[in-house]
Specification:
This protein has nine helices and 20 strands. By secondary structure, it is α+β, with helices and mostly antiparallel strands. It folds into four domains: 83 residues, Elongation Factor Tu (Ef-tu), domain 3 (Beta Barrel), CATH 2.40.30; 145 residues, 2-Layer Sandwich (Threonyl-tRNA Synthetase, Chain A, domain 2); 38 residues; 96 residues, Diaminopimelate Epimerase, Chain A, domain 1, CATH 3.10.310. Strand 6 and strand 7 form a beta hairpin. The longest helix has 33 residues. The N and C termini lie far apart (84 Å). 31% of the residues are buried.
Length: 384
């Protein structure tokens, strides 16, 4: 059975009529086969179309063994005539982004000889995996030239050349292709084998924006957006920049410097707080009453590694120290020090009696435990 692919003849077709050839339940959804369709099936990095077929909400479209399956939320009667309607905003956004990728990849290939070896249209961005290294400055120049292609409003031509013509033609392709090869050409920028949908002219792309460049598998991964998604991304980020500038009382063009100054101030304050916390810790350790060789304390103020640091200070005056964090009886942090090397033995008892967990050395262990502090303290003073 040969499916009539309406999107190939006219990528702008939004509605169509067709006959249901098959409808099968697959887990919690139904896959629908039509004799003709305007829904593009996932391929070449472009997502499958979504929309409506009759009363069925179509969430995705895939091709398998030459058959185009539409995945919907309900059963359709085989043999029935149905009206299909694609989600045009979603489709046209994919067309803009796919064409934008062609321009960027084509420019990189033409200027540096690198290939696009991976392409994916995600929910956050379009990603291109390039098999060569590019600097941020080079990518910035690529972006500038790509938007020049939009300004020039060049026709985007789609055609299937004869085999003898194809053999003499230079074009980009990620893999060896058999049979008819569909070529997408943007004169002066790219010629590529592609199954996707694209606008008729580059001006419809509107905007290409490179979001980020990072090293990836010996090359670079470029994140980009084109068209309406790029414009929406710019509007959202501009709104954030304006909000940040108000919070920092700075002009929008000066917020980087303002943030750097703020981070320095925060860093200085953190350093001052650490020094002050250490002074408090030292004074508290000096004031702690230690009548024997062991001491058990409950500490509410010290967090993270501070509890261990406080226990170390106490160990300067005691052979054995058990410092326990405050909080609920069900979850406490603890640090146990035994300068004679018995910390692990005591730790085993903690695990048995107080649901303790943790590890360390014979001189010190740390972890978590549960229980009432007075009970913990009574046990420790008796066994330490």
């Amino acid at each position: 059975m040969k499916i009539e692919r309406l999107y190939e003849a006219d990528p702008y077709i939004r509605e169509f009529d067709a006959r249901v050839m098959a409808c099968e339940q697959v887990k919690d959804q139904y896959r629908i086969l039509l004799d003709r369709t305007a829904f593009f099936p996932e391929g070449g990095g472009q997502p499958g179309d979504r929309g409506m077929i009759g009363e069925a909400l179509i969430k995705d479209t895939h091709e398998k063994d030459g058959m185009i399956w539409h995945y919907g939320d309900r059963m359709l009667n085989v043999g029935s005539e149905v009206h299909g309607k694609i989600d045009w905003d979603f489709r046209f956004s994919n067309m803009q982004n796919h064409a934008g990728e062609h321009i960027v990849s084509g420019l990189i290939h033409g200027k540096y000889g690198y290939d696009n070896v991976g392409f994916h249209m995600g929910s956050e961005a379009v990603t291109l995996d390039i098999n060569g290294e590019l600097t941020k400055e080079q990518v910035k120049e690529i972006e500038k030239e790509a938007n020049g292609a939009i300004e020039a409003n060049i026709p985007i031509q789609v055609f299937i050349p004869e085999k003898r013509v194809l053999e003499q033609m230079e074009y980009r392709s990620k893999k060896e292709l058999d049979g008819d090869v569909r070529i997408v050409e943007i004169s002066g920028y790219d010629r590529c084998a592609c199954c996707g949908t694209h606008p008729l002219r580059t001006g419809e792309i509107r905007l290409i924006k490179i979001l980020s460049v990072q090293n990836y598998k010996g090359g670079v991964r470029i994140a980009m957006l084109a068209g309406n998604r790029a414009l929406e991304d710019y509007m959202d980020k501009h709104e954030s920049v304006v909000d940040i500038s108000h919070l920092l009382s700075s002009k929008t063009g000066e917020i980087t410097g303002a943030v750097e100054r703020l981070l320095k101030e925060i860093g200085d304050l953190k350093y001052t707080m650490v020094q002050m916390k250490r002074e408090i810790m030292e004074k508290k350790a000096e004031a702690q009453e230690i009548t024997g060789k062991a001491v058990c304390v409950e500490e509410n103020e010290f967090k993270g590694n501070e509890l261990r640091e406080y226990a170390n200070m106490l160990s300067e005056r005691a052979e054995k120290v058990l410092a326990v964090s405050g909080g609920t009886d069900s979850q406490r942090r603890y640090v146990l020090i035994d300068k004679r090397g018995g910390a692990k033995t005591l730790g085993q008892e903690i695990q048995k009696l107080f649901g303790g967990k943790g590890g360390g050395s014979p001189q010190m262990i740390q972890g978590t435990m549960s229980g009432n502090f007075e009970e913990i303290k009574g046990w420790f003073e008796q066994h330490a």
